[in-house]
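Why show two proteins at once? Because comparison is the fastest way to build intuition. When a single record is shown, students tend to memorize it. When two are placed side by side, the eye starts asking what differs. So, the first record is below.
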Amino acid sequence: MKSPVFRSFRRRLLTGFLLIGMVPLILQTILSLSVFMTALNRNAQASADNRLSGLRWELERLLDVCEETAGALSLNERMRTALDGMGPVSATEIYSILYESAASILYGADISVYGGDGKRLFSTSGSPGLETLPLNWGLLRAAAASRGETALRNAGESQEDQGGDAVCLEIARALPGDGSGFVVIRISQRVFSRLLAEKYDGADDAVYVMDAYWRPVYSSNPARDRDEAGRLRAQYLAGQRLTGAEGDAAYYAAGIGDSGLVILLRQPAPLANWALMLLYWVTGVIILICLAVCLITAMNISSQLYKPVKRLNMAMTELENGNLDVRINSGRTDEMGQLSGRFDRMAGQLQINIKQSLERQKELDNTRLRMLQAQLNPHFLYNTLDAMKWICISNNVPEAAVVSSSLAEILRAGIAGHEFVPLN
């Protein structure tokens, strides 16, 4: 069963014109927006990749220097002698070694030496606390299990509360020997900020360093981004694209070597939400305007095509019903006007042909009637003569009977239609 749209010629025309006008426009708009957004995202991705490359290189260099420093301290003979208590080594000498090692780390870092019992023996940091670290869990446990390798741990301290002195990352390495001691390097927020400050700029830019569990290690603006790390971790675990809370920022991630750390770069979104909504709104308005123009144009064109066809259809219906006087009388000069003119001529010629046919049929009927009359008159006369013949015979008047019979034969020969009639 056909749809109501396709039952009417006018509706089919209107639907066809709308499809021809709107489908290419909508497809072109969608493709243009897709290409535009893809170009913006690619440019933003390229810029982010370039900046992430610099940030990752700086952090990898920092971690390499810290690992080399921790390794050098763990193998330092004077350090091992002081921890083992096997020779006279002054605290001044140990602190000199520590400060020289700390100076080799970019922008400085705190270096502490812990004994085999977890007590802090020497430190370049003047801050109190961290006098003892547990051996059965935490940083020293990880360093002991690493067997000559460095262990990293997210310090987990509040950067907002302690400001630039907040410890962000701890790196530990066990000294050779069972339980002889540990070297711990602590990197503060100030070190990260000075290291990465040149790699990002602007109030809308931000850098995050996350551990393997996507917990924040460092944030370039901890006061503003206090809750941002948790939201980003939720997006990452859900497999979603990393974006700002209001969609006004985009985040780009890169791993830092084999340390398990991840660096995140925050940049303004290629197109802000309000700008994107404005773009969609303007596009929608343009499509609606084009739809209205296409609808008006399609209705006008379909009306120009439909009205002559409708008039022609109505005229043909009247002609089928016997109205031979129906005419369209279209004043158009296009193809529809020519078709209407041919219909008018056809109807006029049909009317003339029917009148001529009726006149010819009437003449034919009159001729047939005259022929019948011409045939009936001799028959009546012949029958009359034949009756006279028998009356004469019955009354014994043979001469009159012979005359009547001869006259009847002459009439019969005339009716036979022969060109010549013999006398004998």
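Second record. Ask yourself what differs from the first in the token line.
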Amino acid sequence: MIYFYLSELVTGLRHSRFASFITMFTLFVSILITSAILFLFFYSQKIERKIKEQVVIRVFIDDAVTGSKVNDLRNTIRKNEFVKRVEYISKDRAAEIFTNKTGENFLEVLDENPLPATFNIRLNGEKITKTNIERVVKSLTNLDGITDYDYDYSLSMKLIEMLKSGNYIFYGVSLVFLLFSIYMVYTTNRLVIENKIVEYNNMKLVGATITSIKIPLYLQGILLGLLAAVLASGVIYFGFSFVGKLHLLKRISFMGVRNVIFPFFFCVGALYGLAGGYFATRRITLNVNLNK
């Protein structure tokens, strides 16, 4: 029986070579897009948190605050639940940074350093939001010993909004390709059914079961999905290898990604192919089609 299923599978692919190729390519694109959607779904919160934590609130310290008072002020800021990290920049360090950036040493013409000491504050990306950012900044900058502050959160919020909007667009595109992929498998199998309708009628007349007709079509959809998964795996493999040579993804473990995404490709490809085969064979019965 297995030999029969395989021979029917090969015959079906041979009779619909062009349609099978288009179906496989559509499945390939759909697998990649679905993977990208799932990546964004699971990592979008992490990406959003990282964007928020890149924002630096620079608060300027009164010159009268020195020694242990600086440590006391830093500890007070650290106790704030919205603060993730605090970095102290002394007046001398601020002058050194200024000189390195501009190439000019203002201490050669001034008697004293006019730059204030600062705290560079990074916020907790998991707790900070667009609605509470102003309140948090106000609570930090109203502390005794803080004279002024500087930060720009608007760009980060714009990036986050763009990320969310992009997610919705990706979701829509993924759904379209999912439905189109299943439809292409459905169409390919319907083409096979139409080309072999006389053979199917003869099989029914000699007592063939419904599964002996449907299973080869299921297998055809699954095979096309698996071939698309192989193609998608190859693209990802060589893509990561190329990017790795450019040292653009030093922090990403390809082995870790491969262990997750490659099995996912094959599962999704087989599932899409099986779904198309199922819908294509729903109307097949043991009744003989007398029109053929």
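One difference worth noting in the second protein: Confidence is low (pLDDT under 50) at residues 247-254.
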